[in-house]
Amino acid sequence: MAASGQQPNYHIGHKEETLKAFELRNAGTCLGYLLPTLEALPPDFSLLDIGCGPGSITFDLARRFPKARIVGVDLGDEVIERNRANIAHFAPDSNIEFRSGNLLHPEAFLSPEELGSFDVVHEHTTLICIPDSVAGLHALMRVAKQDGGIVACREADVASQVIWPPVPESAELQERIYAMNGLDTQMGRKLLSKALDAGFRRDQVTASASVLSNITAPHRELYAGSMIAMLADENSDYRKAAAKFGYTEEQVDVLRRNMEKLIAADDGWRLCICTEIICRLGP
Ligand SMILES: C[S@@+](CC[C@H](N)C(=O)[O-])C[C@H]1O[C@@H](n2cnc3c(N)ncnc32)[C@H](O)[C@@H]1O
């Protein structure tokens, strides 16, 4: 487990195929639990989206709330450059910006005036990438407005993932990769408990759950295609883990064929439970 304030790497990486798969996400498909709360705020609210990745959720928020000040932050410089280049295309008439930064060091990407000033601090499947997720939640709490600010999180419970046709070998390697990086595939089910560990009171938190899915053929292809691309890359964490755990070429081939099976299966799908919390700061 990494100490607070440190984070070794991002285990999935920002390959183009992965970014394309994440781009399926938007506020409509992922933030059903949060949209009514945002709609009730004054239209010029400020929102920080931490671990925004390719920014499809962030851009959608900027389009839906054009008067709001939206700031997307991610560890990866390249993905932030990519997002900046996409602003003119995805959210031209909005108040959006992107910055590089590590959630665990907010003072490095926020000015002293901005720290503790955001009306809403949001993350979508970012805490699951941080070994010390309680430190991550604590940092989210610090950057939100202390009196009346909102911290909103949606986290995947990767251990609950259902894929049909069955792909047990792929699930096993995934579990090992998370463990190798000090991460927890059960982050989703522990989200509320970690929020309480980080210092939120139970009466400040509203909890809910929903499912992240890849069901249609194009959506299965984007998900499975991103896994196939990682398997083809000798430098990806997937290949490094396979090498570390002594996988033979035939075993790596089984992993690839599993994903090809998912793409081809008309009766196939990938489903993953996501947990959601809305935490309101203040008395
Ligand atoms: C699973 S992706 C989710 C991306 C986006 N939120 C979405 O759902 O489409 C997690 C993202 O969090 C970023 N990330 C991981 N650790 C981070 C940290 N400590 N600070 C900021 N971003 C981080 C990664 O670089 C990655 O882009």
Automatic annotation (TrEMBL):
Please provide an example of a Pfam family that matches this protein in its UniProt record.
Methyltransf_31
Q: Which InterPro entries did the record assign?
A: Methyltranfer_dom, SAM-dependent_MTases_sf
Q: List the molecular function annotations (GO) for this entry.
A: methyltransferase activity
Q: What's the superkingdom here? A: Eukaryota
Methyltransferase domain residues = 46-158
Q: Which SUPFAM superfamilies match?
A: S-adenosyl-L-methionine-dependent methyltransferases
Q: Which family does it belong to?
A: Belongs to the methyltransferase superfamily. LaeA methyltransferase family.
Q: What is this protein called?
A: Methyltransferase domain-containing protein
